[in-house]
Amino acid sequence: MIGDRLSQAMNEQIKNELESYYIYLSMSAYFHSLSLDGMGHWMRCQAHEEMIHAMKFFDHLVDRGGKVELLNLQQLKTDWSSPAEAFQDAYQHEQFITGKINELTTIAREEKDYASEPLLAWFSDEQIEEEASTGKIADEMTMIGDDKSALLMLDRELAARAFPAGSPLDPLAYKAE
Ligand SMILES: [Fe+2]
Ligand SMILES: [Fe+2]
Q1: CATH classification of 4-71+78-160 is 1.10.12.10, yes or no?
Q2: What's the gap in Å between 29 CA and the centre of ligand 1?
Q3: Burial class of residue 130, CB neighbours in 10 A (0-12, 13-18, 19+)
Q4: Pairwise CA distance, residues 25 & 22, whole Å
Q5: What is the pLDDT of residues 92-138, one digit of tens each?
Q6: How much distance in Å is there from the Cα of 120 to the middle of ligand 2?
Q7: Of the bound ligands, which one is closest to the alpha carbon of residue 90?
């Protein structure tokens, strides 16, 4: 059974992951409003991943006899001054989440909760990828500057990201053919 301290921290992390889901969905809407549909799609895939992250902690708590408590989500930013700013925010947000995963790992070690180690190690690896992908696009946005054709090229490139199979956010899952 999982202890109270780690249980509480994981409930906080479910909230952080769901807020990530919400932020990226907001960013998706922002990009679609600019007709940057590839970026809108990329952010929607990103949002999907965050929901899965929340559910990984949810399942871990359920499996280990912890109590899942869904906390209130914060009202977060819903508008950005440029596509570059949105990706910069995404990169900063992933760094914030990495810090949270590190805190969870510290708590798990202090509490000698060895059963959570594989899950937290998975999240540490995942955060390397998350920082790398958002950081790379943020850098590319800086290089693009005011070059509209370069922005459109990147938009086309980001449109190629695939939804994981069976994602409820994939329009194909709910739109009639
Ligand atoms: Fe996440
Ligand atoms: Fe993430």
Answers
A1: no
A2: 19
A3: buried
A4: 5
A5: 999 999 999 999 999 999 999 999 999 999 999 999 999 999 999 99
A6: 14
A7: 2
